[in-house]
Amino acid sequence: MFLLGHSCWSYLFSKTSARQLRTSVPAYLALLAGVLPDFDIYFQPLGLVHHTYTHSLLVIIPVVVLLTYFLGRFGLAFSIGILSHLLADSLVGSIPLLYPVYPGWNVGLNLGIPSLADTVLEMGAFGLVIVYALFNGDYKLVLKPSRDGLLLGIPLVAIDTLTLLFAGDRNIPLVAFAFSRKALTAITIGHILLSGILALGVLQGLIWYFRTRARSKVQAVVGPSSPGS
Ligand SMILES: [Zn+2]
């Protein structure tokens, strides 16, 4: 699955499990959790092969146990976002479930990527994220200045750089590839829309940052306001 689907499924899985566990996972982390297994793309120059260790339960389960042990219910909800990556990849393709012990044992439905099934799963998740964000109040991150808006820059950079690195690595002429098939065109538009929404959040974050800075400068000059002053 592409990073659009991974970030969106992760958001849905983390947010709904956090709700069940009576904790909360901020939007930027809910979007980021499911992107983390593909961070192996950053380490390819060091010899790490994409879609191996970070897509194996032998690596992910200990990570989940550690996160849950140290961070409790928040750690568990965040972990469920990470696990959604393995689930999604095993639907559209297959994952080396017990790598490196059984490196050749790949498990998955292989629905295809790109494929109609993949497009529906990715765009469907994106649509659900928008509905859910309207329902849980996260939409405000895009409309009102806040610190958390600034943090949306983290998944934004991760999604966009990983997509570019992945394409660059395979010598894929990105623009030609992205619009070459209907399924990919839809997903490309989805990526652009998601990036645009996140960038708008970052913009609100920047407005928050500069306003807070200006306010603290004024306070430093005038002094903290007190009743009667
Ligand atoms: Zn993956």
Describe the protein's topology.
Layout: H1 3-20, H2 27-33, H3 57-92, E1 95-96, E2 106-107, H4 116-136, H5 140-143, H6 147-151, H7 153-169, H8 174-178, H9 182-222
Antiparallel strand pairs: 1-2
Helix pairs in contact: 1-2, 1-3, 1-4, 2-3, 2-7, 4-9, 7-9
The structure holds zinc ion (ZN).
Zinc ion binds at residues 37-38, 51, 55, 85, 89.
Describe, in plain words, how this protein is organized in 3D.
- This protein has 229 residues and is an all-alpha fold.
- The protein has one domain.
- It contains nine helices and two strands; from the N terminus they run αααββαααααα.
- The protein has helices spanning 3-20, 27-33, 57-92, 116-136, 140-143, 147-151, 153-169, 174-178, 182-222; strands spanning 95-96, 106-107.
- Strands 1-2 form a two-stranded antiparallel ribbon.
- Helix 1 (3-20) packs across helix 3 (57-92) and helix 4 packs parallel to helix 9 (182-222).
- Bound molecules: zinc ion.
- Residues 37-38, 51, 55, 85, 89 line the site of zinc ion (ZN).
